[in-house]
Amino acid sequence: MTVETVKEHFYLSLKNEFDTETIDLLFRIYQEDRLACSPRSNEAKVDLSMDDLTTDLEALREGKPIQQVVGKAFFYNDSFLVNEHTLIPRPETEELIALIESDYPNSTPKQIIDLGTGTGCIPITLAKQFPASRVSALDISEEALEIARANARNLNVSITFIQQSLLEDIRLSESYDLIVSNPPYIRDLEKLAMDSTVLDYEPHLALFVDDQDPLIFYRRICEFAQIHLTKDGRVYCEINQYLGPETKALFALYFKEVDLFKDISGNDRIVRGKGLRFKV
Fold it and tell me: What CATH number corresponds to the domain at position 221?
């Protein structure tokens, strides 16, 4: 079939679930990432069966994210494989990368580790930005690490992947100049305000924390830094926008200098810690 035929089925099938603007966006992503065609190639023939198209459209009608339907998402100008075991990379995390880049304009952190890596988008992007750095990434999920390894191969970077829970006692042989993390931080009480697409299709293990201890992962990151952060090293974390002051106060127990940064929408989004108060 041609791209134009796929487009006709797309709009006909989704018109009751989405407005035209949303369908335009979904089809543009589908055309580029699933059909591997440019926006102007409507007459081109594509290797896509009607059964596969029907399956994809049914998934979209049920609320499955387009990134999972096409199997990839863009992050910092690169394409990353995604599936149901990984979070879909968000624009807010791109802001985390941009802050780190701006903090190292003329220097390179020798050792970098990402705690809770998911797709691997953070360490892979940093490895490309700092090609002389040795980069590691940790995650509890072997399924997520499989995707992260594939992304590292596809983007031609070398990453050391470690399967371990951030909540366990992590003792590695290395020290790190840069520790970065986008850990689970959404409280259970916030689920009611969330889109069902996220709740139904993205891994809860990577999203949610108990209401009684919502900063548990940040405490563990700080404890990890006490052991593994170099003297002049830095820690960067994406945070829950509703817990900015609380997260900053926690970091202040461990670091002499703590900064809180807002995202492009004006929400508290990133915390940075420098200068450990004491090392273990």
Answer: 3.40.50.150
**Domain shared by 19 and 114, yes or no:** no
pLDDT tens column, 247-271? 999 999 999 999 999 999 999 999 9
Per-residue confidence (pLDDT) for residue 117, from 0 to 100: 96
Based on the fold, state whether residues 37 and 155 are members of the same structural domain.
no
Domain of 48 in residue numbering reads as 3-62
Only one residue has tokens 């304009």, namely: 105
Type of residue numbered 18:
F
Contacts of 45 (CB under 8 A, 6+ apart): 1, 2, 3
Query: What are the tokens at 94?
Result: 């791109």
- The answer to whether position 67 is within a domain reads no
The pTM for the full model equals 0.92
Distance CA 85, CA 151 (A): 14
Q: Which residues of 238-251 are buried (b: 16+ CB within 10 A; e: fewer)?
A: bbbebbbeebbebb
Given a contact cutoff of 8 angstroms between Cβ atoms, the answer to whether 23 and 15 are in contact is yes
Question: Measured between alpha carbons, how far is 159 from 141 in angstroms, rounded to an integer?
Answer: 16
Per-residue three-class SS string for 35-82: CCCCCCCCCCECCCCHHHHHHHHHHHHCCCCHHHHHCEEEECCEEEEC
How many folded domains does the chain comprise?
A: 2
Angle between helices 216-228 and 244-252 (to 10 degrees): 30
Q: Which long-range contacts (CB under 8 A, 24 or more apart) does 253-258 make?
A: 253/222, 253/277, 254/222, 254/223, 254/225, 254/226, 255/222
**CB of 96 closer than 8 Å to CB of 235:** no
Residue 116 in tokens: 């809770």
Do 88 and 218 lie in a common domain?
yes
